[in-house]
Amino acid sequence: MQEEKQSLLRHILVQSSEIRSAEQTEALIREIHAKIAAGEDFAELAIEYSDDASNALTGGDLGWTSGNDFVPDFQAVMAATDVGEVSEPFQSQYGWHVLEVQDRRIQDMSDEARSNMAFQILHTRRFEEEVEKWVKELRDDAFVEIRL
After folding, report:
1. What is the rounded CA–CA span in Å between residue 111 and residue 42?
2. Mean pLDDT for the chain?
3. Residue 113: pLDDT band by 50, 70, 90 thresholds?
4. CA torsion, ordered 16, 49, 56, 8, to nearest 10 deg
5. Which of 3.40.50.620, 3.40.50.1000, 3.30.300.30, 3.10.50.40 is the CATH number of 3-108?
């Protein structure tokens, strides 16, 4: 059995831009964090403020994840944040974040691992067939004249 520790996350990302300086961006994320600490709804604040277009409209929801797809800064904060807690504001290469760990679980990834392995085998086999076909075409099209 192949198991993976996963976290249910949501986050708010704010980024610097031509309109918002780095200092203003940091001030904004700290203001958002203070609003969350004061009891305002995380999802509503994500919809209003988050610059992450892929999940802002869903309240910053990132779903269940192992964190392997995230940058190391994000992974470290995710691992250090307890269930039901909101992280302190932190900066990554993408901007300033606040994240909430809603839950954690150990997920059996055996079926997914087998499926990925089967896909990889089929993809490799197909690739090798295409390479052989291409090499054969090159040989067939090649003209070699031998002169003595």
Report:
1. 34
2. 89
3. low
4. 100
5. 3.10.50.40
